[in-house]
Amino acid sequence: MKTPTVQKIAQGLVGPEEAGRLMEMLALHPDFLVDHGDTVPRAVVAQALNMLLFRGLLREVPEGARYVREQGGRMVFDHGALRTVNAPGLGALPPGHAAFARVLEPLGYHVGGTYPLERLRMMGYAYTHRDYPDDIAQFFVSEIFPDRFSPEVQAAAAEVFQVKDDPLAADAKGLLDRLAAGGTLELAEATGLVGELVRLFDRHHPVPTLARYEALLAESAELAWIATEGNRFNHATDRVANVEALAEELKARGYEMKPKVEVSRNGTVRQTALRAVMVERPFIDARGATVSRVVPGSFYEFISRDLIDTEAGRRLDLRFDSGNAQGIFKMTAAASVC
């Protein structure tokens, strides 16, 4: 039996054993279980990237890894979420979601919806895959606006989020341009590109000073979170049949869960999550020395989506909900009550 192309890409980056685990862990569309030879479609590149990002999230969130291990079966990776800062003059990284639009669009994604997150002074962008909207995980890319906060926070943000060099290398930009134009890459090129793109989902600004971090935290848990975590996945989400029943089951099994299931205004999308992991991160103190503090990290989320009537017939409701998103975002507040 031939090795699927997505598995070949993963093998080239994390080795055959880890790649095999990912193939067993995640539910994949049949089109991703075949060998495409040396002509790799954009959807396969996108799927391979998502698999490796899911792996990275589990390495950051032990309770998420525990759930996947204990639950067995195949997880349906619904979406991954990341946070960005939209402000001028922050250096080499494009502001806000534009930093990732330049990556996601060549992979076949488009903005399927926008979601004002007014309480958090943010905007969310749902990137949905054009070729396999139901089967390739979406990206929920949010951006926060420092200019909607106090002058103290604006000054802190201008210092903390400076990025000297663009983390997207010139060769990766060239491959993305080719993928956008032609829709395919050679296998070696696809493997190299996925490896480059995985590294984008990280912190690219310098270690923050403790004083600036505390200034951000005083007004925005989300800005403070980006200060320590950068563009890492804030959460990855498992699509399940009945999120309410699963939440009760997991609580009974000793998992620390969000107390409340978030329900969209139309009732078709329901979400909950495991508590965010607490992580140790470096800071620079007033003397210029490096110190460590424990801060909120990432988490593992669950979502149930109903079928709805559309012009194309009965389809999965792939939309998000601003209220749900703002409720879920509380999971990474330093002292959340959610």
From TrEMBL:
Single GO MF descriptor: dioxygenase activity
KW Cell membrane (keyword) present: no
Enzyme class: oxidoreductase
Cofactor field: Fe(2+)
SMART domains: DUF1338 (SM01150)
EC numbers, comma separated: 1.13.11.93
A Pfam family assignment: HGLS
InterPro entries: HGLS (IPR009770)
Keyword line: Dioxygenase, Iron, Oxidoreductase
Presence of the UniProt keyword Iron in the record: yes
Family, similarity comment: Belongs to the 2-oxoadipate dioxygenase/decarboxylase family.
Protein name, per record: 2-oxoadipate dioxygenase/decarboxylase
